Each structure stands twice: as C-alpha cells, then as structure tokens.
Amino acid sequence: VQLQASGGGLVQAGGSLRLSCTASGRTSSNNAMGWFRQAPGKEREFVAAVGWNGGTTLYADSVKGRFTISRDYGKAVVTLQMGSLKPGDTAVYFCVVNRRPVPRLEASEYPYWGQGTQVTVSS
C-alpha cells in the first residue's frame, strides 16, 4: 500500500489548510483512513479518522470543531480540512489506513502510513 499526501505548508494562526491523501496498491476502499501527527519532541498523536463509507468519524478532542475529515464513498481518498489553526497544531501529519472498516484511535490499528507532510502554524 502506498499513501500519497499533499496540502501541507505554512499558515498564520487562525488560518486554514486542507490535507489530502490517496491510497493505492494492495488496498481496499473498504478500510478506514485517518491522520496522525507528531510535533518535535512530542509523542505521535491521533488526529481524526473516517470509516469506509464516510459515515463514521472520530476526532481528537484537541481538534473537534476545527477540523473536518471526509472521504468519498468507495474511494481510498481522504481529506482533512483544518480551520482556526493554532501554533500547537504545528506537526508532521501522517495519513494512515486501517485494517478494518471502522475508524479507531490506536496507532497500532493502522498498518499503513504515509511519509508525512509538514504543517506549520505561525503566531
């Protein structure tokens, strides 16, 4: 499975960014997809995930109400719309694919990881 993410960059606090990720290879559009992030010197953390049909979503408390994850039904493409960005959102964001159709919080549930895309929010 290969994951290709795009959309990272530099934005001022309060601004917006949109991340997109496409999965290809031995993957199934029936698997949940999501995003994790890791800031310098910090542990990797769950951000958001969406089920196979786009109907079930999970969010970290820190991004609820600011970020929206979505995917088109039957497609291995996931989008993360990030709004009201804060300097604390600065991190490398990783696109992930789950073994199962239902989104989960645990990193161990996601065997497939993209290379990461940098998001930097300036104050």
Short description:
The chain is mostly beta strands. The protein has strands at 2-6, 9-12, 17-24, 33-38, 45-50, 57-59, 67-71, 77-82, 91-97, 112-113, 117-122. It is built from no helices and eleven strands.
Structural features, described:
The protein has strands at residues 2-6, 9-12, 17-24, 33-38, 45-50, 57-59, 67-71, 77-82, 91-97, 112-113, 117-122. The chain is mostly beta strands and 123 residues long. Strands 2, 4, 5, 6, 9, 10 and 11 form a seven-stranded mixed beta sheet that branches. It is globular and about 40 Å long. The mean pLDDT is 94.
Given as residue ranges, the uncertain stretches (5+ residues, pLDDT < 50) are none
Enumerate how many helices there are, as a single number: 0
The coarse silhouette is: globular
Major beta sheet summary: 7 strands, mixed
Proportion of residues in helical segments: under 10%
Number of strands: 11
- How far apart, in Å, are the first and last alpha carbons? 37 Å
Order of helices and strands: EEEEEEEEEEE
Rg from alpha-carbon coordinates: 13 Å
Report the structural category: mainly beta
Give the strand content: over 45%
Mean pLDDT: 94
